[in-house]
Amino acid sequence: SQQGEEDPQALSIQEGENATMNCSYKTSINNLQWYRQNSGRGLVHLILIRSNEREKHSGRLRVTLDTSKKSSSLLITASRAADTASYFCATDPTSGTYKYIFGTGTRLKVLA
Amino acid sequence: DAGITQSPRHKVTETGTPVTLRCHQTENHRYMYWYRQDPGHGLRLIHYSYGVKDTDKGEVSDGYSVSRSKTEDFLLTLESATSSQTSVYFCAISGGGAGGVYEQYFGPGTRLTVT
Questions:
Q1: How far apart are CA B32 and CA B28, in angstroms?
Q2: Chain B positions in Cβ-Cβ contact with residue A50 (cut-off 8 Å)
């Protein structure tokens, strides 16, 4: 399988705490993206980081990328109950086909 | 929400019957994708299209075919449905980003049950 792996598979934290989830992938990439999926809904794009970038911020989100280790992390600061969702990374391989490869996801539960 | 719809939203069918799922977009995006989502597997690409009449296989294409006769519609067909194709199917579109970098917009999903 070409799929990436996400770690942890599930995470439960208290409101106000930070949540960190990790993504590992297997091929060289153009960019890596993070998506959120609320239960029973489609995925929503959160943030994109290019292969020549090491860190990116968007509001309470911070993404890092280490291409030498083929890994990325997503940090959500000051989490809220509304952040409860599954989070997926997706990689855009350098093959140029735009055939994105998704990770298996991290289920985040934020307790109020 | 991006202008992307899927139909039907729910379907129950019997083993061996043909099934067609439709994805419709109003965004004029070039790329369209069909994924399936199963517990423990995340999203897996079935087929994708990079233009009208241009399609390519994904990771789990066996038992599925697709067609794209116009920009806005991408059809996924299960020629003879099997119980292993019970899943949630998502359509996605992309193709409007700057600098050749594209984010994907997802439809609401179709829950298919094959009995």
A1: 10
A2: 101
Asked if residues A33 and B105 have their Cβ atoms less than 8 Å apart, the reply is no
Q: Is the Cα torsion angle B62, B63, B67, B72 positive or negative in sign?
A: negative
Query: What's the distance, CA B97 to chain centroid?
Result: 21
Q: What span, in angstroms and rounded, lies between the C-alpha atoms of B33 and B79?
A: 18
Judged by DSSP in three states, B100 sits in: helix
Strand-pairing partners, residue B64, are B78
Determine how many CB atoms are found less than 10 A away from the CB of residue B80: 11
Contacts of A48 in chain B (CB under 8 A): 101, 103
Tell me the pLDDT tens digit for each residue of B45-72: 999 999 999 999 998 999 999 999 999 9
Q: Which of A9, A35, A45, A107 to mutate to test the interface with B (most CBs of B within 10 A)?
A: A45
CA distance B87 to chain A (A): 12
Nearest to A98 among B44, B90, B102 (CB): B102
The predicted-structure confidence for A18-61, as pLDDT tens digits, reads as follows: 999 999 999 899 899 999 999 889 999 999 999 999 999 999 99
- Whether residue A35 contacts residue A45, with contact meaning beta carbons closer than 8 Å, is answered with yes
